[in-house]
Amino acid sequence: MKGKGQCCSEGMVDAVRLCDELGIPHHLVDSRDTFQQYIVDYLVEGYGAGVTPLPCSQCNRTVKFGPMVAYARDELGADAIATGHYARIVYDDATGRYQLRRAIDRSKDQSYFLYDLTQDMLAATRFPLGEQTKTETRRIAAELGLHTAEKPESQDLCLIEHHGSMQTFLDRYLGEKPGDIVDCEGRVLGRHTGTHHYTIGQRKGLGVAAPYPLYVAGIDVGRNQVIVGDRDSVYAPECTVQRVNWVSVAPPRQPLSVSVQIRYRSPAVPATVIPLVDDTGADSGRIRLVFEEPQFGVTPGQAAVWYDGETLLGGGIIEPLPTPTLAVPASSQAIVQEKAC
After folding, report:
1. φ and ψ at 281, to 5 degrees?
2. Does domain 234-318 have CATH number 2.40.30.10?
3. CA torsion angle for 60, 175, 52, 157 (degrees, to 10)?
4. N or C end: fewer C-beta atoms under 10 angstroms in the chain?
């Protein structure tokens, strides 16, 4: 269930009916307060600070898997839970760790959103669909006579279901905060109704005329400005990542060559992960991510998830990028692209 609203009402109705069709008990757990704290408040705070939060991985760890594993153990006496995520879990004897791997059906692979799961969560989780294609899943569901066998897939964020759009949802909490849209030299090109309506790399909906396509290159919350530039201005050669969770391997001390995704639908690209340490030399929970080639639209608040082949090694949240060469006071809360100007 969602926060103060009914996001997954259709899904809950489907779940009740499926359990009836399969002849198994159905339990409903009210997670609205948890959802409000870890998802709704998290999103509002992030957008208000000029970043673009990724709610799905946050939801998996704090709302779904963590509480669900605890409920299964404490209330039902169950050893494990099973979900319909398209991913695989394999125990590796050599390292003594549970590895998270891509699904057999790469077009449906959801491992990207699961990077933040702990070893305890993985140990108590089963992904039965990870070894088969979506076509096979539908075939089995049809053979069992399940009413959802041919149900269309939903690609919408759950929060959108009852708000119509992310803009409407955010305006409910943040309201409209008009400000300037400026180019990389600080010239005013137009107006916006709130920086929370924009994200790095965005092209559509800017409402600004120019002789060449413009993209959001940065968001300056302190000045309430949206900074736009040409496509080249939205490429970044590297970024830093915080809240890193190492999944299939222990935190390394040396750089690693990996393939990394900086958004769910983007291809994995070659990069080097460089672990960062704190003042005592201990793991800081942060890494530096250097791309083999500069990447378009590296977006603060989104997840960077890195792999070795099919195995998900780890992931974390992209930090705000360095301030560009723009006349922005040091005290300004600038969250902008390094090469924006």
Report:
1. 90, 5
2. yes
3. 40
4. N
Does the model's pTM come out above 0.85? yes
For tokens 């009740």, what's the residue?
16
Could you confirm whether 184 is annotated as catalytic? no
179: amino acid identity, one letter: G
Count of beta carbons in the 10 Å neighbourhood of residue 72: 18
Structure tokens at 217: 């290159």
**What are the strands, taking DSSP E only, across 152-299?**
179-182, 188-192, 215-220, 225-229, 235-246, 256-261, 269-277, 283-296
Write down the residue that tokens 């705070």 correspond to: 45
Residue-wise pLDDT tens digits, 78-97: 999 999 999 999 999 999 99
Neighbouring CB atoms inside 10 A of 326's CB total: 21
Residue-level pLDDT at 162: 57
Task: Find the catalytic residue in 7, 56, 158, 341.
Answer: 158
- The CB density around residue 231, as the number of other CB atoms within 10 Å, is 15
Question: Please, are residues 82 and 129 in contact by the beta-carbon 8 Å criterion?
Answer: no
Rg of the chain in Å (alpha carbons): 22
Contacts of 90 (CB under 8 A, 6+ apart): 98, 99, 101
Q: What's the maximum distance between 2 C-alpha atoms anywhere in the chain?
A: 66
Considering Cα of 272, then 334, then 191, then 193, what sign does the dihedral take?
Answer: positive
| 195: β partners | none
List, as one string, the DSSP characters of 88-110: EEEEETTTTEEEEEE-SSGGG--
Q: Where in the chain is the domain with CATH 3.40.50.620?
A: 9-162
Q: Which fold has domain 9-162?
A: Rossmann fold (3.40.50)
> 7, 56, 59, 341: which is the annotated catalytic residue?
59
Tens digit of each residue's pLDDT (9 = 90 or more) over 9-40: 677 888 899 999 999 999 988 989 999 999 99
Residues of the chain with CATH 2.40.30.10: 234-318
Q: Is 181 a residue whose pLDDT tops 80?
A: yes
CA–CA gap between residue 121 and residue 1 (Å, rounded): 20
